[in-house]
Sequence to fold (204 residues):
Amino acid sequence: MFEVIKNGGWMMAPIILCSIVAMAIIGERFWSLQRKRILPADLVPYIWQLHREHKLDEATIRRIKLSSPLGRILAAGLLNRKHGREIMKSSIEEVGRQVAHELERYLNALGSIASITPLLGLLGTVDGIIRVFSDIAVGGMGDPAVLSGGISEALICTASGLTVAIPSLFFHRYFERLVDDHVVRMEEESLRLVDIMQGAREDV
Fold:
């Protein structure tokens, strides 16, 4: 592996750096975007039970807020539940936009890596081809080893760039879809809470 990297030329350094960053982002997003961390099961029924038992004080709402992104959204509505349906909904929507933005953290960087690494590979390829033609201009076609070195560098850079870009693009699209699904689900849970608190539903 070291020989392959060495033969790929100087452009392998930024490609390897991009691969390390991409792996770190993918691992972090897999951990942070777990459904159980974003959308705890039975949170709305739990809040409804506390409401019926008149236990929704500020300390309890603060614990709900810190429990998860969904809890943060619902807590915004709970703090404004006495101000009517529209105020409750608008406060939930305001915090919901902030939470949705936070769920997309690092995804732009991952998408940029997916776009940049093929270009880095192409740049390495061009550099390798330029070296081949420079060697031909100086020494002619008599040394196959020199020519094969430049061609090898070109092919290694191209392959390395694509090897990083393809999974980065795949996971970028996957996480975007996952965030969209989480946001839709949080909207559904928030509207359900609003209906319950404002009397549009009798139970969960």
